[in-house]
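Honest question from a wet-lab person: if I give you the sequences of every part of a complex, can you actually get the arrangement of the whole thing, not just the pieces? Trying it with mine:
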Amino acid sequence: MRLHWAHALSRRLWGGWGPSQVARSMSRHSSRPAGDPASGAPARRDPPRDAQDNDRGPAAFAAALETLERIPGRRVGRLELVAAALAAMPALGVAREREAYHRLLRLLPRGPWVPRGPIQRLLAPFPQQQECGLQILEQMERYGVVPDAETRFLLLGVFGPRSRPVRKCQRMLYWLPRLRHVDPHPLPSVLPPPGLAAACLGLRRIANDPDAHITVYQRPVPDEGDNENEGSVQPYIVGAQSPEQQELLARHGPARPVFVEGPFSLWLRSTQLWYYVLRGDPLPPHLRTPQTPSAACTTPCTLTWTWSADPGTTMTSMWTRWRRVPSSHCAWRGRVTGTH
Amino acid sequence: MALTTMLLTSAYLRGRCCMHKLLHPSLGPLLSNSTSKLYSSYRRPGSQPEKKPSWQNIDFSFKKGFDVLKTQLSMLKKETKDYLVGPGGHPLDQYLLEQTRVLWEFRSQEDLNKWVISSDVEIGGKSEVYLKLGRNNQAALLYGTLNTEVPRDGETKYSGYCSMRAKLPMGSFARKKYYDWSNFNSLYLRVRGDGRPWMVNIYTDPYFSHQKDDLYNYFMFTRGGPYWEEIKIPFSKFFLSSRGRVQDNQHPIWLDKICTLGFTIGDKVDGPFQLEIDFIGLLNDRAHTEEFAYEMYEKNPRV
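Yes, you can. This is the full assembly:
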């Protein structure tokens, strides 16, 4: 039944927008690309004037919810509103903001969805509503948003203690703060945009040596007015070389070739970079200098027992297998990295 | 000979309850190709359920049965000899004193055949994964492309994963065998990645069938770059999960009955990935005294 007159009446009597209109405007904002004024056919009901001006992501999200926050109106359609808001959040760019989820949780009614008594709790009360709460937390988990004590407080008010969303929030509060710091080689939280800065970061990561020098060769900006090149980044070549690699290159005889290999891919979270390697073949065994164990060795000293009755025991042969000869790189790191 | 085939297949079917996702290498050629769906209890939404009874898929052929019997008998002979040498086929002093062990080394195609690769194509996704030998046959190269496009079947919400799992250790006549890693406390991997995070999964075949989806997981972060990385992951860091959900009741992994080790990538980033593995080994790190990395307090107390 389409009760247009009922919706219009409620709007006139109580003002503001109901949840269904908010949900519809949210889906419209997310489908319309940012900065594109009034694309497509005009809607049957005009959106509020302030939403037309703020067409950017977080502001559009805030504007869509603001009317409903100011005048809560009737307690219907909240589940659809939450579903539409969750679907629209990635497009509007607020999926990684905890505050956006808090605003959404504050729109849910506090009290009506709390089971009263142990018998009602036994009968799996409010399954759709609890599923809705779980979907909010699931989206937070998917985008790496760690819930707060405030999130837990809001969920307690809406769903009551011992409900599935509160249990899931407590679980997230246990695991996510631990699993944030599990990476032994973390990247900075804000990555530079793809370009020279990202390339330097990638090379510093690859070089594996804090003493490595990074060199940038970049064409200078031309003095004459070459209008199409003005403001653009001049082409560049970035390279990194550690002192050990310099030594190896100095010892490398000009009669033996060096090879440029690549491109190999390196991922910095969600950016892919490509790098090339200059390498030479390893020396034949009789020309190699014996390698001394590096001073910065972090492996603990292991006690290798040898059985006196059997001198050529399998223990030492297994240990030597791990100290293998560098096969195809300029410098081989014997240092153990990445101890978790 | 028909009796042999029936015995082998009945052993396979009995063991199927706890290994629903993992392949049986020795019995694969005995059954026809269409039974690959039998190995997994997952049925894609919208697909027809299996109507053919399982006994109709068995191939009653004398020649094949005879060949299988010969291989099984030779495996049994080898097992008896290993049993006489010592635990795990190695002498007793090695078992008592060892601090390192190399489990899987990738030097030839038969080393690669001990592993199974899979991706989200099983659930209708579009990721690709391939496994081949690396340069100079010195490492295994696991590469492919991750695609997080969700299959449109109305049920699936997330997609985009690729994995590589070791095949189950099988004794003669399709008996389950287990790895005993109780002498060690860390996993030692020599890998070269491209900067993407991986997850290491260990499956310990549980006694009860309702625990059949239990996996112990931990992360393996690769740096990327031309240098090889030697990654040590202590077993005390592995947390328990079931069907992909981290459980509330955690306990340290029991190392005496390990079935499989696996690597998974699912970091929600579309694009190609690459991992070279030189070898996978075990280490008894005497400096690592931690028993379990996670506090055992009640994670969902009565509120």
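Two things worth pointing out. Residues 60-97 of chain B form one domain. The longest helix of chain B spans residues 62-85.
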